[in-house]
Amino acid sequence: MLHGKVAMITGASSGIGAAAARLFAEEGAAVVLMARRADRIEKLAGSIVESGGRALAVPGDVTCGEDVRRAVEAAVDTFGGLHLAFNNAGYASAGLPLHEVAPEEYDRTMDVNVRGVWNCLAHQIPRMIDSGGGAVVNTSSVAGTVATGASAAYVAAKHAVIGLTRAAAADYGRHGVRVNALVVGATRTEMMEQIISASPALESAFTAESVQHRMAAPDEVARAALWLCSEHASFVTGAAMPVDGGATATS
């Protein structure tokens, strides 16, 4: 499905990002993995290469524009271009009323979820244009469409991701670059397990959000990102596609 393509995946050290890295590589893409945890992405890249795929680990923080630029340039230098990106790095904490969210927590939430996507788009899209076009998928959330009980900062940040997605789709459609977002529901990632461990009662609340009464597996979200990056979605851009088990359908 992705043969001959080069894909950059952020937040690739675990969960949805790691699942996407494996899936994109299985579908023929050369994958550039970016995350702060160097040991994890290096191990994942090694396993992809051992399985016959092409992969490169570039440790970095999406909140740092220079780190993102370095990862993009590594993709071009190593594999000859950049065609696809899954901007999946994110940060969330337990929900608190707005007035109880510390300023530094607000800043961290906005930096990772909004500035991180901004940095990625700013560096990825010019290289995609150089490569003849491409596709970007940004990870938003059910919290990007409705107030979910997550912190106000997280809700604001994930709404902003959808806004950035739509603006970029409008700006670069004429250059052959498609930009879409995933509206992701509760997913059993490492970050989610940490939240549940801290507040066990939240597990039943998360599963109740879905009309299927369960959380998603990371692979289920990764498959949606794969489809949006593929030619099967060639006329889809500027969309915020739910992958939420029906949570937003009943909101």
Strand order of the largest sheet: 3-2-1-4-5-6-7
Secondary-structure element string: EHEHEHEHEHEHHHE
**Tertiary shape:** globular
* CATH homologous superfamily title: NAD(P)-binding Rossmann-like Domain
Residues in helix, %: 40-55%
Low-confidence stretches: none
Overall pLDDT: 95
The number of strands is 7
CATH class: Alpha Beta
Give the end-to-end Cα distance, rounded to a whole number of Å: 34 Å
- Which CATH-level-2 architecture? 3-Layer(aba) Sandwich
Number of helices: 8
Count of discrete domains = 1
The name CATH uses for the topology is Rossmann fold
Major beta sheet, specifics? 7 strands, parallel
Give the helix/strand class. alpha/beta
Share in β-strands: 15-25%
Radius of gyration: 17 Å
List the main descriptive attributes of the protein structure presented here.
single chain; 251 residues; Rossmann fold; seven-stranded parallel beta sheet; globular; SDR_fam; KR_dom; oxidoreductase activity; NAD(P)-bd_dom_sf; Short-chain dehydrogenase
Question: Could you walk me through the main structural features you see in this protein, from its secondary elements to its overall organization?
Answer:
- This is Short-chain dehydrogenase.
- With 251 residues, this protein is α/β, with parallel strands linked by helices.
- The protein has one domain: NAD(P)-binding Rossmann-like Domain (Rossmann fold).
- The protein has helices spanning 15-26, 38-50, 65-79, 103-130, 152-172, 190-198, 202-209, 218-229, and strands at 6-10, 30-34, 54-57, 84-87, 134-141, 177-184, 240-243.
- It has a 7-stranded parallel β-sheet with strand order 3-2-1-4-5-6-7, with helices on both faces.
- Helix 1 crosses helix 8, helix 3 (65-79) runs parallel beside helix 4 (103-130) and helix 4 packs parallel to helix 5 (152-172).
